[in-house]
Amino acid sequence: MSTKIYYDDDIVKKFVVVTLIWGGAAFLFGLIAALQLAYWPLNLNLEWITFGRLRPLHTNAAIFAFAGNAIFAGIYHSSQRLLKTRMFSDTLSRIHFWGWQLIIVSAAITLPLGYTQSKEYAELEWPIDIAIALIWVVFAVNFFGTIAKRREKHMYVAIWFYIATIVTVAVLHIVNSIEIPVGFLKSYPVYAGIQDAMVQWWYGHNAVAFFLTTPFLGLMYYYIPKAVNRPVYSYRLSIVHFWALVFIYIWAGPHHLLYTSLPAWAQTLGVVFSVMLWAPSWGGMINGLLTLRGSWHLLRTDPIVKFLVTAVTFYGMSTFEGPLLSIKSVSALAHNTDWIIGHVHGGALGWNGMMSFGMIYYLVPRLWKTSLYSVALATKHFWISLLGILLYYISMWASGITQGLMWRAVDPQGRLMYPDFIETVVKIVPLYWVRAAGGLLFIIGFFIMVYNIIKTIQSAPAQQEQTPVIVPDEQPSSSTPDEGHRKLEGLAAVFTVLAVAAILVGSVIEIYPTLSLHKYVQPNKITDPYTPLELAGRDVYIKEGCYVCHTQQIRPLAAEVLRYGPPSTIEESMYDHPFQWGSKRTGPDLARVGKKYPDLWHYRHMIDPRSISAKSIMPNYPWLAEKKVDFVSLRKKLSVMKMLNVPYDDDTVANADIVAQKQAQTIADQLVTEGAPQGLADKELVALIAYLQALGQKGKKP
Amino acid sequence: MNIIILMIPMALILGFGFLAAFFFAASQDQFADLDTPAHRILIDETEERKTKT
Amino acid sequence: MSSCLYCQSQSPLGTTFCCRACEILYDGQFQIFAKKAQTLKKEKWAALDTPEARHLYRIASSAKTENFRLYVEGLQCASCIHLLEKLPEFEPQVHSAQVLFGSSELLIDIEKDLPLSNLLTLIEEMGYSAHLLKKGESAQESWQNDSRRWLKEIAVAGACAGNIMMFIVPVYAGVSGSYKTVFLWLSFTLFLPILIYSAQSIYQGAWRALKTRTLNTDLALTIALWGGFILSTFNLLNGSDIVYYDSTASFLFLILVSRYFVKKVQRRTLLHLQKQDSWEDASYLKKVGTDWAAQIAPLLLPGDEIKLLKNQVLPCDAEALSSQSEWDTSLMTGEVLPRLYPHDMKLHAGLKLLSAETYVRILKPYDQSEIQQMLQMVSRQSLNKSQFIRKMDLWSQRLLMTVFVVGILFFAFYSSINLEAALQRTLALWIVACPCSLAFAAPLTLYRALLEARRRGLLIKNHDVFEKASNIKNLIFDKTGTLTTGQLSLIKSEPSDLHQKYKDIVLELEKTSEHPIAFAFRRAWPEGPQLHLPVSDVYENVGEKVYGLLDGKMYILCRAPESSDMLMIDLLENGKKVARFSFKDELFVDTQKTLQTLQKKFTTFILSGDSLSRVQLLAKELSLPTEKALGEQTPLQKWNFVKDHKSTLMMGDGANDAAALQEATIGVASHGSLEVSFRAADIYLLKKGLNPLLQFFSISRRYQIILKRNFILAITYNSIAGACALLGWINPLVAALLMPLSSLILLLSTMEGWS
Q1: From CA C636, how far away is CA C631, in angstroms rounded?
Q2: Most buried residue among A190, A548, C205, C390 by CB atoms closer than 10 A?
Q3: Which residues 6+ apart lie within 8 Å of C352 measured at CB?
Q4: What is the pLDDT of residues A105-127, one digit of tens each?
């Protein structure tokens, strides 16, 4: 009793091809961004490719376009084989494919144009957010449909990793994307300040966990055994570490917010759970590596195995480094520096990149029914990209630790040793060149692979006829007779658990009113909301991606207080929809930059930063003095803010544009008296200056 | 910090969702045989290796 | 070792494939194979096609199909799984096939009119030997039900403990106000599923203890669990944040996990017990009227007349109907040489027929044969044998008693000074000092020892052997199959430069013989006959002589007159001796070396059913005092001998050793032992020879050291933690750190120092 079926390999081919296309794009964006940091003129005075807009494009392309499509290729390929059935619906597969590419294209258009929510790895604006949710649901239906019609009773561990990915990513994306639109491509998140920070980094960390870790572990558990033709070292361990991982990962998010104004207990929680992650992560790594027992010789000869094993090694390194970085004292040094960038790329290039490459080298010859064009080229690719990653990793470690140490260096008199921030930048620019060189090598390797793959596909027989697969007719029926009882028992248990969960949620909601709304806001320190012009300026700040290089969160560390002023408080960002705490200090912190310099300083700094600080690596923003502020939409924006509990009075909302124009005129006049040209009153630059001058000025002193 | 009013239920739902999934898996005997599956995936139904000598 | 051409797994040197499955799959001709397989003869399994037999083995059935469970020997690699699961493709009447690699089982769902003989023939043709399992016979089956429950209990405990930690860590880290209240109550709520669901099996154990008016670890755990819960909840209601939900929950989780590990190892042992009697589902020819019909052994009845074929094993106790037949009794007696039984002789089940077909009459049903009875008796006894658990309970009881008494005395004394503090501290004492870590470390040490034993080729059935090992004074070995391979080897030919012609004549004469001497000749001259001599009219007078004609001369192979034990064989040419061959028992490679090491520490004996002279010969070879080498021992004598010598380790393999193995302080069944001795023994060796025995003693030594170390650690922890609790120094944070820390230390102590 067996049936002939055909797997849908066409969809896998499609995803493989786009993985290569978008991978190339993502890596090139990364290389340009790296070069821009090393040599600022490469920002080319073009608003669309300044670093602030290019970096989100790079990260989104790398995560969602390159890694995303690689994951889909692997999932569509391995799931059909693991479940011994064709995908649930070819139509849904195609909708998923084309929908996802459309999302990527729209991201590639909107991000350079400055349409962004400024939440890292969730920058895309609300229509695209909705599209992502819809396409993800299509994918989920297709995947669970496939599971439902599977012919293999046991679900291999990879499938479990895929399930966790699909479910959790959906929840994360939806929760983090709750936002109120104010225009076709503009919205404000419902969360503000610390709340937004919590949700964002809960999302941010788990995006790493469930988009870049669990699916790739699933792929690892399929492709490594296949590549070395050996069963996984311990299937038991894989099951145990899967369940341990999904139970722990979700709680590590707050380690991104150590030393911020997040309450200490929440920070501690993040640290404890991050450190606990060590165990299940290494369980996975050990299991992956030991699968090669007795086949280590393949590491010498087979480039696929080289890639896969190196990927797992990098996974081990990153998951060792992650908990280390989330220990508070380490975080004090490393946070906001390039060390984090190095850590991320160790994971992205080493783990996700190498894994995807290994998988693609495995897949392409099999999908196109031919053999790899050149094993020698694949081996070259491996060594070149490994060298590239190491250069990247090491230069960023050096740069991050150098910068971190310089920031905190204090002389015996208790003064900062490097009070001028630019000193700490100039010092690491050479390392930026090394990093760019590493990236270049990685890309060269990648294009060798693209060439190799193109040649491979060209050598494939023109007639790509599908090979049928013979599979059992039906799901193997269990031979135990008391099936009914057991099902009941299972159902009862599931029901109990769900009931407990429901009760818990219910009680929490009941408790809600008893919690004071602004528990952590001290009543004598009420904050003023931004003026309409400041809000417009803030939107310019977001659009230009200033948060990419400037934080707005002063940590309660001696050197930081000396450099920037008193630590940031919860109140100061309580009306920030979205929060602008940032995560990286390529430039100095801006939380208290308001009133520090005259308006003209800001004007000149925006037009040409080097007229203020000769060694600055910040791009020029001349277009800010030419583009007009969108005063008209301000009423809408303020009313949305009001809806989100920002205390604007009705008058201000109704006359937002007039109020803003008035304030703009005052600033423009002042600028003229200081020596700036005429006619800036309706320009974005004035709005931005208004916002920058308001930073750190909103909290009333007791 | 009101956000934890949202995040705690989210975490509990996810956590207990996974627990429910574990229960479901256990009752489906997904953990009954942890030796065969690792071997089973190694050989595909279409035999690519036939040609390789 | 070379690697298999198909699956690349290691295969014996010189073979292209590791198994038949790989060969079939490599050829890619399995469709043709399947067709060919359908035409095969299936007489061997014919008896399974009777409705009774089919009914006997059926596990479940639906309208169209029936389920069967098979034990499949010879599963090697992924290809084996793949090929067997392709059965539906070969045989359309098979609906599904699922391999359980770990337990070597195959679950199949077949149409009602597919004869089982077809299926088994097909599987055999694939290169496996398969046996049907009766319902309830599968170790896998019963394990599944229990394991499902345990896993769920562990999962709930783990998930709840993890989530409790999520809410308690903020409390330690200083969360305040309404958040704290919410977090504390959430941890209270999350503790309930542990209390109600996960601890069920612990309550059952505690209940057993109460019923028998004893103390056990389960009772201690219950008290710690409820003590923690009550104290925490009491404090919570009084607005204090002194709660122990996290420490108690994570503790219980760890204990459940370690218990699961132990059960898992026990189950692995059970899986090996499952090894089938190889003759149970074989077909026997039973006389029906004037015809012969196939029947399986369990369905044979007293009075049935059976035609036994060469090499078949006698399934039931029976009497011989043929005039003379030759039997291999080594399974039962340890005798190397075959025995001749005349007409009317009572034959025991388990004998293997060496001569041509023989007629017997069944005397007793299958399950009442002597061997089956012994088997049942042995397995009943081995169930009551686990001293280990009792011993652990004793330790825990004493500790528990101490903790209780100390707690109560303290309360009585301190309550007059400060009632509430007295209550708090007493309960804190019970929570931290109940012998939980001991309950957790001891099974884990055992688990580690069992694992280590398995890795070194020992299968431990009775867990107390590790403790008994230190008392062992005497070692008693069976000969055949234990010290020797059970085969003869040719040690001397006279003349030493024997002409190839005579070698060939000997080989031609012994060509079809199943006699051990014949095997010894064939092994000694593996190149086989070279000259292709037309030896004719070969006749074997079984157990006596072999005759044959060549070029008009009569050649006879017979026992040398000087030899009492047929250890010397002469070749006669027309009545004149032309060659003489001497044989001896073949030793395992490591026997001599290992025995020398063991003799230094233990008094060593050999007890064998084989002839005294051969046993003495062996003793000489092994430089053992001859008075310690006893031959011609009956099972009863062996049993008595063991009984008279206290503190003995007995190692043997035959059914005649079973009773002695059972009686010995430690019974060791050597590799490849007969089912019955395996069941009677405490240890089963997975490797040939004596070396695993050395390993056993070294593991036992380490086991004892680690157990002692753990015990001291646990006592130390308990004294310190208990004192701290009474002094009022234990707060939840200290408990949360101390309890897992103590288990971690014990865990490390348990895992350390094995290799």
Answers
A1: 13
A2: A548
A3: C311, C312, C313, C314, C327, C328, C331
A4: 999 999 999 999 999 999 999 99
